[in-house]
Design brief:
By secondary structure, this protein is an alpha+beta fold. It has 7 helices and 21 strands. The strands form 7 sheets. It has a 5-stranded mixed β-sheet with strand order 11-12-13-14-16. A 4-stranded antiparallel β-sheet has the order 1-6-5-4. The termini are far apart. Bound molecules: zinc ion (3 copies). One zinc ion binds next to loops.
């Protein structure tokens, strides 16, 4: 290939550049809303682009042959400018707030059973305090952010646009502000919806399900307590951990307990009064008597074997510590896990009042 042919080939390639948005004299425009006869410029190289608006093909901008522009530059620069436009449109009241896709980081360490994280995704609206977006902002560590979201004239969030290269790990981690990395093509498709490829130093995010799990759990407990006509032990004593499960026999929702101590075979629970459903009874599975949960409705023993390390009591009985802090931790884990066996959502048709 001689240099002339190479030149030709380059021109041909460049003729195929896609320019999804172009600048008029001041603003970034979509081809749909662009007007014939006006001048438009490539966000990548500032070269003139031609608006093609015909009967047959969808409106688009055509890029003249160029040695200085390429598709990567166009996507990268367009995405940056589009974010700035979205923020300014939102601040001007023309569009609704851009949303940031977040993953709930609410998690618990379940010891032997590993760590469990909620990971539910939610769209978080941009906080009102964000004033504007600035491109090519130089951070204090010398890193130039593609876009910086400004709060009180200080950068509050750095946004990096990835087209082909990921952000340098060291640079990203030495930033003093939170940062997110967005895929350039995704920004062009959904400029008002930031879905980070990765993020760093963002404030931890807790989804609504996690935030409201505790009152929901307590509501359900109250309901089950009423239906099964039992009395919940005094919670201030921080001793009996309680969860909701279905009786394996009668299928009614019931309250089951666990408590610290590894001598269930011989000694009754320490705190008195002992809940009326905890009884010293014989288990055929184990072959001897121990202090066990029973169903308040059908009176059958609820085998320990199924209770531990499950969603009901997501911890080991042996690790249980008799302290108010440990009690609260255990209860939080029970509430967190109650969601996974959908105990908080469904209403069990078998949960009618049990006849005593
Ligand atoms: Zn260009
Ligand atoms: Zn969550
Ligand atoms: Zn039962």
């Amino acid at each position: 290939m001689n240099s002339y042919e190479r030149h030709e080939l380059k021109d041909y390639e460049n003729a195929k550049l896609r320019v999804p948005f172009a600048f008029d004299e001041e603003r970034l425009c979509a081809p749909k809303t662009a007007e014939k006869g006006k001048h438009y410029f490539c966000p990548g190289c500032q070269d003139t682009v031609i608006l093609k608006k015909g009967e047959v093909k969808a409106a688009h901008f055509a890029h003249k042959a160029s040695k200085t522009c390429n598709q990567e530059t166009i996507v990268h620069k367009t995405a940056k400018n589009l974010i700035v436009k979205m923020i300014s449109d939102w601040k001007a009241g023309k569009t609704e707030s851009p949303k940031l896709r977040r993953k709930c980081g609410f998690k618990f360490d379940f010891g032997l059973y590993g760590e469990k994280t909620c990971e539910e995704t939610c769209d978080q609206p941009m906080p009102d305090k964000v004033e504007q977006a600035v491109t090519e902002y130089r951070m204090s560590n010398g890193f130039i952010a593609d876009v910086a979201l400004m709060v009180e004239n200080e950068p509050a969030l750095a946004i990096e646009i990835r087209v082909t290269h990921a952000v340098d790990e060291n640079k990203a981690h030495s930033l003093s502000v939170p940062f997110i990395e967005l895929d350039g093509h995704t920004v062009l498709e959904k400029p008002n919806h930031f879905d980070p490829i990765r993020d760093n130093k963002l404030n931890p995010f807790t989804c609504n399900t996690c935030k409201h799990a505790e009152p929901k759990f307590e509501d359900k407990v109250t309901k089950v307590v009423k239906q099964t006509r039992i009395k919940l032990p005094d919670r201030d004593s921080c001793y009996y951990r309680y969860g909701i499960d279905k009786c394996w026999n009668c299928q009614r929702e019931i309250i089951l307990y666990t408590w610290p101590g590894d001598d269930w075979d011989t000694s009754p629970p320490k705190k008195k009064p002992i809940p009326q459903t905890i009884k010293f009874c014989y288990s055929r599975t184990i072959g001897h008597k121990y202090w066990a949960n029973t169903c308040p409705c059908c009176k059958r023993i609820q085998g320990d074997f199924f209770l531990y390390g499950s969603n009901l009591f997501p911890f080991s009985r042996n690790d249980m510590v008799d302290s108010p802090d440990a009690y609260r931790q255990d209860m939080q884990k029970i509430v967190f896990c109650a969601r996974f066996n959908r105990m908080l959502e469904k209403t069990n048709p078998a949960s009618t009042h049990c006849v005593k």
